[in-house]
Design a protein that fits this description.
Number of helices: 23
Distance between the termini: 50 Å
Strand content: 15-25%
Low-confidence stretches: none
Number of strands: 33
Length: 812
């Protein structure tokens, strides 16, 4: 017997042939994870995945090694659908099959380094003595009787690798051993937390801390903590303030054991919907009807913000589970949408498994096993959740399908939304793509009747859409560098009525750059040649692309002048401005800097939900999935950010961001208003935002894209050539153009470039870009990959890297 394998670290496009010993032949199946031994043992044994099994070898390829063991107790880690999906990703996104397969599986499943074998505390042994009849099995038991616990690697060194995993699996089924994954820490994971000291009087402490406002605020928050303690880090709870409280005896440090089962950390009372609206019922009827017919179909659900799309999803999933099928729900970033996850959890309890990049290795492994074993029947998470090891999937939901977070920025560069549609096709399931601002590609597919368009044109509970107003910054008085008098007065009115405010500034840090007024010097990142962002709290200049940081003494490093201009305010600076304008008002800030700690997103949103603060300031994080009934005002502090980016999708992204954040206002009985501050008020995009009309904006943008042959009127492929030497990046890109033109006719595609990328240098590597527009012809995946490999081989001395990005979402 022979197996066709995709082997880890074998970067090739076709499977290799391996012999299969008779002892393994009966257990080996397609999708199994195996140990492959290359012929001649020139390389170490490596992991591999069975694509298919053959009785005879392919005449055109001879065996290159053998399968020496089967992992994961012989249970396939890839189902027929996920194997097929991996091969489709490899072909469509022009990557290697093993890279696609590795993207499907969680990291703990792709290693055997830390597998542990031990004798169970209580042995429930089989009566079948054949289980310990071989010498290898007796040797294993003999070693374990002496040491009780050994790693698989230790057993390999003492007993050899042949048949070891298969033998351990048989012994485990017989009750003689236990095979476990060992993770980075076998002890319970703990973290230092702080709680109020039991012996102090809160009023005495408040008086003592009257002149230490940060410590006073930290103490008050400890008193209000729902679990009785809080962790340092995250939203304005600094280590310094908490340690100072502990040194003064006002707080005490405790060690808290962290639960291994991942949770978003956010909860709220169940939102009771007495009855679906007529529009919701019509949408649900159409989707249910397609599901009951048991055939593949894709729906585009275009529903305004607050129209109740989530309740439609939940009602559909109830029917899917009742029919005995499973489901997948994708959200752009699970940490940014804890409310959505919480609402699904309220309805489905333990039947839903939340997947998250912040989960530990143990949590990821346990979550994968729960889904594979059928203990959980709904997988909910970000883009990689589309690969959940569920079988018999009946529905796949992609919420906020327009969001660029569904596009992976490393190989394989897949789009989770498009992979979801393909998986639904292979599963014969329904796929629902939902958004208030659908991607132009999806809306165009609906117009072409590839998708079925469904609409929710009004909000639930008779809530009205917010009124949107424009504030021309050139014509209005500014009270601070970032805030107009108009918006200040609106915020003041809301606070007087005890309502809440969300403010968007899509730039973090204190200032986007620092300019010397004396010599005009701007500090640039030495690795990326991009202005560094000033972060006042840590007195640092930071590059937001490579992470380089440098201390900043508030003097010009070139001429020593103190005459500095802080340009382009970020969230950190605006939080200071708001604190000066509204003294005593607590400002919650939500950006990458304040949410780096695990659970920080949920903590901030929980505090805002409980009205511990009435102003929430943040980057685009505050535009996604938030539903707070008391938010009556949304302010966009600088709508110009991103307006003039050299990317044909820039307008679409900005329109979506503005409409999404506007949708946070007036979601209940309190009417909502949105004030958008801008300098470039003549931009036609803003007129469409003020009218709140997606369709008119879509039609205008589509005319321009049709004329310029941009997606969805063409297929776009971006190739990036990077090297530490600019000459290597530029000349290899030129060479690629010549090579491609020799293989395809000029009318088959349009070539743009080569040209420096929008950010021409990142992380000490120069970047050149070539764009390929395909309108009628399809470019062979094999051809592009062949040219990619050839160029990287020729320019190896220049450390050239060539990446292929199919359907790119960012051309910078």
């Amino acid at each position: 017997m022979y197996a066709l394998l995709y082997v880890d670290r074998y970067l090739r496009d076709t499977p290799l042939t391996a012999t299969v010993p008779k002892a393994l032949a009966t257990e080996l199946r397609s999708g199994c994870q195996v140990v492959f031994s290359p012929a001649g043992n020139r390389r170490k044994n490596v992991l591999a995945y069975v694509e298919s099994i053959q009785a005879e070898p392919d005449p055109e390829s001879s065996p290159e090694g053998s399968v020496v063991d089967i992992l994961n107790r012989g249970i396939p880690v890839l189902t027929p659908v996920t194997m097929s999906l991996a091969l489709w990703i490899s072909d469509y996104y022009m990557t290697r099959p093993i890279e696609a397969i590795n993207a499907l599986l969680p990291a703990p499943l792709k290693t055997t380094v830390q597998d542990i074998v031990e004798v169970p505390a209580f042995m429930l042994r089989t009566l079948d003595r054949r289980i310990i009849s071989t010498q290898l099995r007796r040797d294993i038991l003999s070693l374990l009787q002496k040491q009780k616990k050994l790693s698989v690697r230790q057993l390999e060194r003492r007993l050899g690798k042949k048949n070891l995993y298969r033998t351990l699996a048989v012994m485990e089924r017989g009750g003689f051993v236990e095979l476990k994954k060992k993770f980075s820490s076998s002890a319970p994971k703990t973290r230092t937390a702080y709680r109020p000291a039991a012996s102090v009087d809160p009023e005495d402490v408040r008086r003592a801390l009257a002149r230490a406002p940060r410590q006073l605020e930290a103490f008050n928050r400890l008193l209000e903590a729902p679990e009785g303690h809080l962790f340092a880090g995250g939203q304005q709870l600094s280590h310094q303030a908490l340690n100072a409280l502990a040194e003064k005896g006002y707080a005490e440090k405790i060690t808290v054991e962290l639960q291994s089962s991942y949770s978003t950390g956010f909860s709220e009372p169940p939102k009771i919907i007495a009855r679906l609206t007529e529009s919701q019922q019509q949408v649900l009827f159409a989707v249910r009807n397609a599901f009951r017919h048991g055939s593949f179909r894709t729906f585009l659900l275009h529903g305004v913000t607050g129209s109740g799309k989530t309740m439609v999803y939940i009602e559909l999933l109830k029917e899917v589970l009742e029919a005995g099928r499973n489901a997948i729900v994708l959200v752009p970033e699970i940490s940014l949408t804890p409310q959505t996850a919480s609402r699904f959890r309220q309805h489905f309890g333990d039947r839903i498994q939340i997947l998250h990049s912040a989960m530990s290795s143990r949590e990821k492994y346990e979550a994968w096993q729960r889904l594979r074993n059928g203990e959980a029947r709904i997988a909910l998470g970000a883009r990689s959740t589309v690969f959940a090891p569920l079988e018999n999937v009946g529905a796949i939901i992609v919420d906020e399908e327009h969001d660029p977070a569904y596009k992976q920025d490393r190989t394989p560069r897949y789009n989770g939304r498009d992979v979801a549609v393909m998986r639904a096709k292979q599963e014969q399931a329904v796929c629902v793509l939902g958004s208030a601002t659908p991607s132009f590609e999806s809306y165009h597919n609906a117009e072409q009747q590839k998708y079925t368009l469904l609409e929710l044109p009004e909000r639930v509970d008779h809530a009205e859409m917010p009124v949107i107003r424009l504030v021309p910054m050139r014509e209005n008085r500014r009270l601070t560098p970032s805030l107009s008098e108009v918006l200040y007065l609106q915020i003041k009115q809301r606070l007087e009525r005890d309502e809440q405010v969300i403010l968007l500034q899509n730039r973090r840090g204190f200032a986007g750059s620092v300019l010397c007024g004396e010599c005009a010097h701007i500090p640039l990142c030495p690795h990326c040649h991009i202005p560094m962002v000033y972060h006042a709290r840590h007195s640092q200049l930071r590059c937001h692309y490579c992470g380089h940081a440098a201390l900043f003494s508030k003097t010009c490093p070139t001429c020593g002048s103190n005459d500095l201009i802080y340009r382009s305010s970020g969230t950190e600076r605006i939080a200071e401005e708001l604190g000066e304008l509204f003294p005593g008002e607590r400002i919650l800030r939500m950006d990458v800097d304040t949410t780096s700690a695990r659970g920080a997103h949920a903590m901030i949103l929980k505090e805002f939900h409980d009205k511990q603060a009435r102003i929430l300031l943040g980057t685009q994080m505050v535009a996604k999935g938030l539903d707070f009934p008391d938010v009556s005002l949304v302010g966009v502090l600088m709508a110009d950010i991103g307006m003039n980016m050299p990317d044909f999708r820039a307008s679409e992204r900005l329109f979506s961001l503005l409409m999404q954040v506007a949708g946070r206002a007036g979601r209940a009985s309190i009417p909502g208003e949105v004030y958008i501050q801008a300098y470039n008020t003549d931009n036609p995009l803003l007129a469409h935002v003020l009218g709140g009309c997606y369709k008119s904006f879509y039609r205008q943008e589509m005319e321009a894209r049709r004329d310029l042959h941009y997606p969805p009127f063409s297929r776009l492929i971006a190739l990036e050539f990077t090297s530490p030497e600019e000459r290597g990046a530029e000349r290899s890109a030129d060479e690629f153009i010549g090579m491609l033109e020799r293989h395809i006719p000029t009318e088959a595609c349009t070539l743009l470039g080569p040209a420096p990328a929008g950010r021409a240098r990142l992380k000490d590597r120069y970047r050149y870009q070539v764009l390929i527009k395909l309108t009628t012809h399809r470019l062979s995946s094999g051809l592009l990959k062949q040219l990619q490999y050839e160029l990287m081989r020729r320019w190896q001395h220049q450390q050239l890297s060539v990446t292929i990005d199919v359907d790119p979402q960012n051309l910078m």
